[in-house]
């Protein structure tokens, strides 16, 4: 046990950079946040300015550190938007192009061609992922092929590629360390999650020189220290994990079969599957959860495209509500949805349906239907989608879920959490600290420098704030769910 008082977590997200100070009991001491610009050069293209990412992240870190004695900081943990790709010059540290964001779809034609060429099974076998523009490899290739001189410089070892964690560490250490962790490496389409190494066959497939890749390290590890002129003193950097893996760790889902679901703009669900990767039959992703004490743990991951985003649509598109917070009041003003179902397939449907051509619909409207019925159906649709995802996970893993741990902005909606519990017929547990992504990064960092002794020590920090138990008989919920199944079938492109 050390005498330090705090761990600094850097939470670099898709729309903002945050810094959070946690004390030894896992409580938040102080927090700072700065948003940065989203860049849309063309339809389907999404970019960030790497300098803005670094600048906002540095400034929020400095803001929280200025409020305390710097000598009280044990170390820094980093969690980050995954898959987003940066390439920079090793000598100057200058990016050769904007960061291409995980949401970017510019390489869809290329991934379609790879699928036609029969490459998807190879990719899935080695990485656990699907062939999709979402992941880093095709973004790397695009930069190398489209920015003058980049491919030659890459082959000569003059460029560095990284996900956002690697870009931050490069800047935090003054270019001394070019490092990522296993969780971020596992999201690139270039890392073999069985061999735990960059895969030569995949590098050849995507025409990416090995010389640009970062070294891969465990998720809890002393990677180095910040450069001397950055803060008032050098600080160790000792934890890295992609945002969803960090949330899984922050939710203390450290045993096989434990599941967390983050209710954000979309929903991200991860199940800890222990020390063996499980190949999915339902197009879930198999990914590395973390590497700790030289032990690798794996997870199944699935996502819901439209979670909280459906609430934003009700507010901005339909004008049914004036604020996101208002929806719970509107939804609970009626006893049920009156047979109304809303399938939010605005961007197609994800797992387990995987129908990119599906489109949204509202079904079951009568003259008695009101805006409240649509609002309630919208909230229920989030729970139904997560239920479908969980069923797929249980089928893949042969593990019966005992509880669901929740976090994210929409998890504060008590109606949604209760409906989710009714549907699943298991407890839905919301923790005392919902900043689970940053907390996970802090836990990983703290373990490496003995701020916390072991996983048992951090497990004691996790506390439930509210437990939602099923209040409706399963037969009744099954009846509600059968209506959802019919609505989904109508939304599918083949119907």
Radius of gyration, CA atoms, in whole angstroms: 22 Å
Helix fraction by DSSP (H/I, runs of at least 4): 25-40%
* Share of residues in strands: 15-25%
Main sheet characteristics: 7 strands, mixed
**How many β-strand runs?**
23
Measured distance between first and last alpha carbons: 61 Å
The CATH superfamily label of the largest domain reads ATPase, nucleotide binding domain
Q: Specify the CATH class of the largest domain.
A: Alpha Beta
Number of helices: 16
**Count of structural domains:** 2
CATH architecture of the largest domain: 2-Layer Sandwich
CATH topology of the largest domain: Nucleotidyltransferase, domain 5
What general outline do the C-alpha atoms trace?
Answer: globular
Side-by-side strand order of the widest sheet = 17-18-16-15-21-22-23
Query: Taking all residues together, what is the mean pLDDT?
Result: 91
Low-confidence stretches: none
Structural class: alpha+beta
Explain briefly what this protein structure is.
By secondary structure, the protein is of the alpha+beta class.
What topology emerges from the helices and strands here?
Elements: E1 6-12, E2 16-23, E3 28-35, E4 47-48, H1 50-65, E5 73-80, E6 86-89, E7 99-100, H2 108-116, H3 120-127, H4 136-146, H5 150-155, E8 159-162, H6 164-172, E9 179-181, H7 182-185, E10 191-192, E11 197-198, H8 200-205, E12 215-217, E13 220-225, E14 236-242, H9 243-250, E15 259-263, E16 267-274, E17 285-292, E18 295-304, H10 308-318, H11 327-331, E19 341-343, E20 361-363, H12 371-397, E21 404-407, H13 414-424, E22 428-431, H14 436-448, H15 455-459, E23 464-468, H16 474-491
Parallel strand pairs: 1-5, 5-14, 9-12, 15-21, 21-22
Antiparallel strand pairs: 1-2, 2-3, 4-7, 6-8, 10-11, 13-14, 15-16, 16-18, 17-18, 19-20, 22-23
